[in-house]
Amino acid sequence: MRNRGVEGLYAHQGEAWEATQRGEHVVIATPTASGKSLCYTLPVVAAAMTRQAKALYLFPTKALAQDQVAELIELSRAGELGIRVATFDGDTPGDQRQAIRLNGDIVVTNPDMLHQGILPHHTKWAQFFESLQYVIIDEIHTYKGVFGSHVANVLRRLKRVCAFYGANPQFILCSATIGNAKAHAEALIGEDAIAIIESGAPSGEKHVLLWNPPVVNPDLGLRASARSQTNRIARAAIKAGLKTLVFAQSRTMVEVLTKYLKDVFDSDPRKPARIRAYRGGYLPTERRDAERAMRAGHIDGIVSTSALELGVDIGSLDVVVLNGYPGSIAGTWQRIGRAGRRQQAAVGVLVASSDPLDQYVVRNPGFFSDAAPEHARIAPDQPVILLDHIRCAAFELPFRAGELFGDVDPTVYLELLAEDGVLHPDSGRWEWIADSYPAIAVSLRSVADGNFVVVDRTDGRQTIIAEVDFSSAPLMLYEGAIHMVQSTPYQVEHLDWEGRKAFVTRTRVDYYTDAIDYTKLKVLERFDGCVAGRGGCHHGEVHVVRRVSGYKKIRYYTHENIGYGPVNLPDQEMHTSAVWWQLPQHVLEELLPSRQDQLDGFLAAAYALHVVAKVAVMADAVDLQRAVGSGDGAWFAQADGRGRGQLRTMEGGLLDPAKADSFVPTVFLYDNYPGGVGLSEPLWRRQPELVRKAQELVEACDCKAGCPACVGPALDSGKGHTPRALATRVLAALQAQA
Amino acid sequence: MTTALNRLRLLARQAGRQAAPASARQPAPSVTASVDSSALRALLRIRHRQITPLRSEDRELPGVELVPGLRLTEVRQPAPDVPALLDGSFARREAIPTAQALFFDTETTGLAGGVGTRAFMIGASDWMGGQLRVRQLTITTTGAEPAMLEAFRSWLRQDTLLVSYNGRSYDAPLLAGRFRLARMGAPLQGIDHLDLLYPTRRRYKGRWENCRLATIERNALGIVREDDLPGSEAPAAWLSYLRGGSAATLRGVLRHNHQDVVTLAALLLHLRSSSA
Fold it and tell me: Residue range A669-690: average pLDDT?
């Protein structure tokens, strides 16, 4: 230990040690770089040396796992501890797997591999499970929403398998600072845990700049794009000799920003690249290569998605630039924490985009620095997710009559699986009899299985250059799309939807593409409702249809729109849960005689409600969506470029609001996951607070007609009501005393 | 219909409520138990593919029932004279004691892999008093699996030499997993195992279309099978019988498995003699 620069324990590390020695489950939620990993390394190593106890480490990404293993091997070597540490993931060669299963003292993996590669083969791991004493789960704040709900069920399966081998391992969990570390850890492992949240570690000075791009169009409240500002800041930092990391929110944005920086710094193709992109969807070899180059200090600028957010060691950095608010305070600190790990001063710059959440945060710096850290939420008993994991669990070990899964009675699910011929009930046991391997069909990170591969066919080649997950495919791989890999543009020529393949060729164009999509909802079943001012608020089950109708071509640098193209892809349909608000037709007519005004008011109110709801439940932006339409699915509404509503039928045709038969505009906020992930019911329960906060948001905004921070960008046409004013009326009516 | 809807609501509400501020971890009341699978199906929008129970007249299988759900067939057939020791150099090993050789092959519920695949039939043959004894264990209920494993374990001695075709990678690990699941330890551990696939491959690689056992026995041993049931149809045959279907195809699986272990014995002799 001392050789590794560790002289003594900080208070929180000592506390963690004592709790683990008492045999309790422990969760440690202290800031980045406070020596969290020592909290679990110590008990694990001590137990391995004194009583051959084994440990399983779970990290959310492969890169992070490999990093930890390198550290542990170094520690074992320096101290001559003789502890055998290995990663076990999709990249582990077949000939090493058996040795790891039999001899590994510490096996480091990720939840996906545990789910698909280890639990379904647990008999091969019998010796490992028999001696398993510690399960370490790091970065648990990333296990929230749908992903977290899946992981909680994988842990239920892990505990079930451990129990079969007579093991009852102790859990040590770590998290970035979140408000409910204890509750979240307990929800994940289904048991009580001791929380340690005070850090005794010193930290390097951190400067955080919140950068709001200048207003370029005061009428619309439009600001210069975060993209161009991020580019400027990164360019200046790299020119000043600072190692810079840029986080972008989407894969497309990673490629665009990489291209901009490469245009400046990598113009000479004979020299080694100074700028690199890093994101999911690259092949593993390419990512490992990028990690090595960064650690070796050959790279001056990295542009990445959240793939790099977690502690992948990429050497020291001076500046972190966030292109847009990552959607959570924990995520922001986590990313900024990548700069200046070793107690040196560092700078983090958050460049706000026009996204309302960004504007909300950047205008309320107090929210960022003082607010209680947010809560991570999961819904492990979500029926779709539960069914998937009960299926997997039944494959791993037969359920016995009366056996619980976590604290759920699985009988109804087992009956369903038996009806489908997957299980066979025989003398009080549900036996697996199907010829299938269910874990393969369940992805922890996305709704549908089946990644798309991107095949480069330039000059008769047939090379796989990237992968795209199912849910992103309609937005990224339509025919005509420009798909970028390391900022090299490829054009999608043919999309084989059934075969999950996109064929591309190398192209030279000066634009990129952006999908246009829209959503229609229909209420299927109202579970409950209440009075909301002069109208009502309800929650229930809805049918959602999402369609990508076309795409825009956007020119580099000027960002002007230079054309459109059509897209023909299957609709994405699902049933999920939603919360919705309505005002009766007569109240609406009295409030706003013009149907166009009514529509604009609802669109604007929906926008504001969505902003406050996302903040309220700290939902991942992709997990909670909004829509405005008629409750029966006859039409849906969208704002045009100037903030005015347009009615469309699902076929895409325009509809005159004055001519629609029934006109009950409805604001929907819905869970973007089949069956729902439990966001909308809490929203329904908190609806008075949401409407009030939305009202405050709209009234406090200093724009004229509407801007991205309140009701969405809108032009002040000088006549009639502005969307902002209309939104206040609608929101007021939803609060008024009847 | 209304009751189904009410239950569905209950279920959906439960799913929603669980996610509400997970501040206090409360054990979920087992509401789901009162929900039937059709309501769940409706909520999850899963199509109903109910398997129809079968009712066949033809349920006869050969052999005797050892315990309920486990059948044993035992046949002795003529065999050539076999020396006590065979030259093992073709398999890069010491002399092979023929009295200890146990040829075996399993029929399984599929090729999906993982702990969910089981063997429903284990066939084994050995040389006894100038004859080849063929024994086959078949389960007709899932509950009889431990009894089948126990019976197979009783056929093994410390000095048994298992002989198989691809059994080192497939049959043996699969059975080892089933022994684990039945909490019967690891009886295969430490038992010598000769997998004839590897010497066969060394000898015949590239000669015929592939190195599957059926290809080798036809071309190298001149064995022709009549109306043989392809191995790939075995899982469906057993599943159908399990659900009350006809025994006819399962009898076909028994014949197929029988021939496999007979062929294994012949193949061992063939590989030894053609290497000399």
Answer: 83
Would you say the pTM of this structure is higher than 0.80? no
3-state helix, strand, coil in chain B (%, to 5): 40, 20, 40
- Tell me the nearest-neighbour CA distance from A184 into chain B, angstroms: 7
What stretches of A240-323 show up as alpha helix (H) in DSSP? Answer: 251-265, 284-295
Chain-centre distance for alpha carbon A614: 13
Cβ-based contacts of A381 with chain B (< 8 Å):
14-15, 18, 28
The pLDDT, as a whole number, for residue B230 is 83
Give A396-443 pLDDT, tens digit per residue: 999 999 999 999 999 999 999 998 889 999 989 999 999 889 998 887
Q: Do B111 and A435 touch (CB under 8 A)?
A: yes
Q: Which residues of B156-192 are buried (b: 16+ CB within 10 A; e: fewer)?
A: eeeebbbbbbbbeebbbbbbbbbbbbeeeeebbeebe
Looking at residue A114, what DSSP letter applies?
I
SS (H, E, C) A337-364: CCCCCCCCCEEEEEECCCCHHHHHHHHC
**CA-based R_g, chain B, Å:** 24
Evaluate if residue A685 carries a pLDDT over 60. yes
Phi and psi at A727, nearest 5°, equal -60, -40
DSSP 8-state assignment for residue A408:
B
Per-domain residue ranges of chain B: 2-51, 64-274
From residue A190, alpha-carbon distances to A159, A378, B20, B48, B137 in Å are 10, 12, 16, 32, 43
SS3 A69: helix
CB A187, CB A175: distance < 8 Å: no
B38 to chain A: nearest residue by CA?
A416
Query: What ipTM goes with this model?
Result: 0.85
Which pLDDT value is given to residue B21?
34
Min CA distance, B17 vs chain A (Å)? 7
CB contact under 8 A, B109 and A395: no
State whether A412 and B33 contact (CB < 8 Å).
Answer: yes
Q: Is the pLDDT of residue B26 over 50?
A: no
For A384, which residue in chain B has the nearest alpha carbon? B44
> What Cα–Cα distance (Å) separates residue A384 from each residue in A236, A389, A523?
49, 9, 20
- Lowest model confidence (mean pLDDT) among A47-56, A690-699, A715-724, B193-202: A715-724
Residues of B in contact with A412 (CB under 8 A): 32-33, 35-37, 40
Asked whether the predicted pLDDT for residue B4 surpasses 60, the reply is: no
The token pair at A505 is 């060729």
Higher pLDDT, A726 or A217: A726
Tell me the one-letter amino acid at A588.
L
CA closest to B108 among chain A residues: A435
Q: Could you tell me the pLDDT band of residue B117, with boundaries at 50, 70 and 90? A: very high
**Architecture of the B64-274 domain:** 2-Layer Sandwich (3.30)
- B199 near B91, Cβ under 8 Å? yes
pLDDT digit string, tens, across residues A254-291 = 888 999 999 989 888 888 888 988 876 677 677 777 77
